[in-house]
Amino acid sequence: MDNDFKQVYGQSGSELQDQNELNQILAGEGGKLYPVLRNGDWIGIQNGALFTPLIGTFENPKIVIALAHDMPNNLVYVPYKTGTHYEELNKMYDEAQANLEAIKVPYEVFQYNDHFEVNACGHEFSSEFLLHKPFLNELHTLLKSDEILVAVPRRGYFKAIASNTSRDLYNGFIEEYEFAFHNDASEKPQITNGVFVIKDSVIVQRGELEKY
Hints:
Layout: H1 19-26, E1 33-39, H2 43-46, E2 51-56, E3 61-70, E4 75-77, H3 86-101, E5 108-112, E6 115-119, H4 133-143, E7 147-151, E8 159-162, H5 167-182, E9 195-199, E10 202-207
Antiparallel strand pairs: 1-3, 2-3, 3-4, 5-6, 6-8, 7-8, 7-9, 9-10
């Protein structure tokens, strides 16, 4: 096994990778590369995984974007190699972003008294749809709002509402993502107990909401 891959972890952030999958990647036959959201406590950060901060800094990351090969049994995270040029790193992130945006996002739209919630949960990269610009563009149309709120409390979760939605839908949205974040029975890794504010398909803020 290549030393660079000895401490790269899978979906839950704890299991060791399948030897055959690692050999495939090292032979240049790995699965497609995708961005993966993880929180600042992710063990991969301390063990040399490649990442860039989405929220926070390299010294104090809160939410990071890692890169991983989508293999049959695991997500195999890309390690950082000392001396890698920025051009190569940017190329890898561009490739991962293109693969993500090639996904046709499956979602459902729920209507509550002329207000709407979009549910895109259940896909391997549901939480990463936060980075999917074409889908964010579509969300503005679906939710009929220039400003939307997106919750990704754990990997595999994505729900969105308009910032000016009804009180009942707003409060229910908060209850749903808070329950998902605190649900210890879930095997999906936590990301953040809060929301991302999206304007014109761009993340402009992250924070926690309070019911009213």
